[in-house]
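Saturday, quiet lab. Running sequence design on the structure tokens for the scaffold JK sent over.
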């Protein structure tokens, strides 16, 4: 995929970035009024999330753990897409993994795929096949919240500095794609944090997206009309 085409996709994703942000902001403002509808599991999830944020801001950051997840995510997505993996290296200063082939998803996956969260959920599902885990559901909900906050905090921190993965596909394309996928994950979490919001959430997100693209379409149409009018005036004046 040529870089100019990715740039065009990045531009096309900008209204979607705005719409998911508007939807999330509206839901955040509504949270105090829906606090009573939060289930115990949602409270544990939120508690795990906040607990990690406190740790991240007050204690030395476990950079090695993030680098390990980053490189393993490259490897996992590479394996899923048929690539051969070798030479995995991880250190506090950075890491690397050799992948026999690459594409957008393999390269950018660490920035939108919360590996530790996925592993936490998979481990719970596996354990539930052999033991009754209902008693431990709150603990797992808290662990999911903590690992997800881990992913978001480190992703934000790492994207503030130059990343070869991002540069490979262009900043605009990479940032918009990463942002949209992460925001979609955040919006989906609201269906877990509050009861009975999945349908309204989808309707709200769809309406905001349509409104954003309609506004851009109208603005672009007006810009084209003005441009054509200027060309007509220029031709008629000759």
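Result came back. Writing it out in full:
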């Amino acid at each position: 995929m040529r870089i100019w085409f990715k740039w065009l996709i990045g531009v096309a994703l900008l209204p979607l970035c705005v719409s998911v942000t508007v939807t999330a902001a509206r839901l955040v403002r509504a949270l105090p009024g829906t606090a009573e509808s939060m289930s115990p599991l949602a409270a544990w999830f939120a508690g795990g999330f906040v607990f990690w944020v406190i740790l991240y801001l007050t204690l030395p950051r476990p950079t090695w753990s993030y680098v390990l997840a980053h490189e393993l995510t490259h490897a996992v997505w590479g394996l899923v897409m048929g690539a051969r993996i070798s030479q995995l290296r991880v250190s506090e200063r950075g890491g690397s993994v050799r992948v026999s082939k690459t594409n957008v998803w393999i390269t950018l996956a660490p920035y939108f795929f919360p590996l530790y969260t996925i592993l936490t959920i998979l481990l719970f599902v596996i354990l539930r096949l052999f033991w009754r885990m209902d008693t431990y559901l709150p603990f797992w909900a808290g662990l999911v919240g903590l690992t997800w906050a881990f992913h978001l905090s480190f992703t934000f921190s790492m994207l503030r500095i130059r990343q070869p993965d991002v540069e490979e596909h262009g900043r605009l394309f990479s940032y918009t794609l990463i942002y949209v996928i992460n925001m979609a994950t955040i919006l989906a979490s609201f269906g877990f944090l509050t009861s009975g919001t999945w349908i309204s959430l989808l309707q709200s997100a769809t309406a905001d997206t349509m409104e954003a693209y309609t506004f851009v379409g109208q603005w672009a149409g007006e810009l084209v009309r003005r441009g054509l009018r200027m060309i007509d005036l220029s031709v008629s004046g000759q």
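Notes for JK: The chain has a mean pLDDT of 84. The first strand starts at residue 85 and ends at 91. Ask whether to fix the surface positions before the next round.
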